[in-house]
User: What shape does this take?
Amino acid sequence: MARKGRWSLVVRLAAASCGLVLAACGRPPADAVRVGRQPRIEPDYSGITVPPNLAPLNFRIVERGSAFRVRLRGPGGAGFELTGSRAVRIPLAQWRRLLAASRGGSFAVEISARLADGSWETYEPLVNEVAADPIDSHLTYRLINAGYVLWEKLGIYQRDLESFAERPLLENRAVRFACLNCHAFANHDPSRFMLHLRSRLPGTLIVTPQRAEKVNTKTSQTMSAGVYPAWHPNGRHIAYSVNLITQTFSAEERCPIEVCDSASDLIVYDTATRQVTTSPQVSTPARENLPAWSPDGRWLYYISAPRPQDRHETIEAAYSLVRIPCDPEAGTWGQADTLLSAGATGRSYSFPRVSPDGRWLVFCAADHGYFTIHNATSDLWVMDLETRTAAPLPINSDRAESYHSWSSSGRWLVFSSKRLDGRYARPFFTHVDAAGRFSKPFVLPQRDPDFYDTCLLNYNVPELVQGSVHLRSTQIRDLAYTAPEAARFDPGVPLDALSGATYLRRQQPR
Assistant: This one.
């Protein structure tokens, strides 16, 4: 998979205002042959909309030639030239000046190739838009091997989107190779986040400006500790699913790994009082899963599937898309409202996420199940919450589109996609305008244009954050080694309203 003999781009900077000088291969002559198409580049950074604060879009030219000239041209004469090999690494300072000049407009990438006989070819320019809307400066994700048996080597990392700097928040080799998962941030705030440890040193690390602690959210009235999280906009409460999860494996290419829950409910955890509460509305014999709050904090979105009668129904479950009014501070719940019924549409829905302005609901739709990262039938859909009309997004591929999250402004969406090779999930970005139009997605840029040819890790749960986490990885590690504080269950909730408790009682020997 690795490409041999990588070529580096030669960049010579002249003094003062002379700018960058071309290497000995020279400038393409005026009579260079015009190729009536755009050049092929990898990754595909053409016809896209990029943030004005993004790292350079380094790429590789996939055309014949012994040398190449690349000219990046913005409005008002802004731009610069590079020459050398097919691996194009764009200098950060020049790139930032180009984006600043092109903000709210566009820039062109003009590529010429020198052939073996010394003649030149010039391709049609690639044109990209530069949005006026910046993106949140950091992206947090889990890196994990694609093979199930290799799960013990993983970590949670944070990438500076304005450069190529990446740092680990926590690697599991530092915590006895525990499973690290389900990290989440409140309101894109790097000072307010949580992540789970499982199998070893179990517990949930919850960090707020007031305190950092490790909590055991499992109580005697719930079937498990909190699993899939969603911070309430008030920054105090966290909704979780509690699940009994299993995995199965298949030879089918469409979905080689099935992650399914045989039982699940929803709970709400109060970080100030360490109390867990729920409602009979979201703790039923059905499976309630994957909570997500509306930005005004009035609605809790989730998915729901009937209680399985056998193993087949556990694997082939179809989840409806539901929401319920909830005020965690007052402790009040309303009546559940089904937005999309799996029984009526024949699709299964997962990962609801509402835009910060409350207008758009983006979610996954697949032929079955909820854990869509392994399901090639999974697409991104959008619902206009004013009209409750839903449709698949035009940015889908024929591969799995899975976990997604909004930027704080609501003008960017990041999601995981396996569209590059069908095997590995990579983070892709799309711009969303006020009318709900989504631009052509592009993959996270890397310093090395060949990076995705050699990276054998999945990017899971990409979350946009408005800055760098202030804790060092050693501080998070030390927190993981502390004894967890015990959560307590809300005494005002009747025990028999919890499907999890009754499920566990049924499993106990008589």
In short: The mean pLDDT is 90.
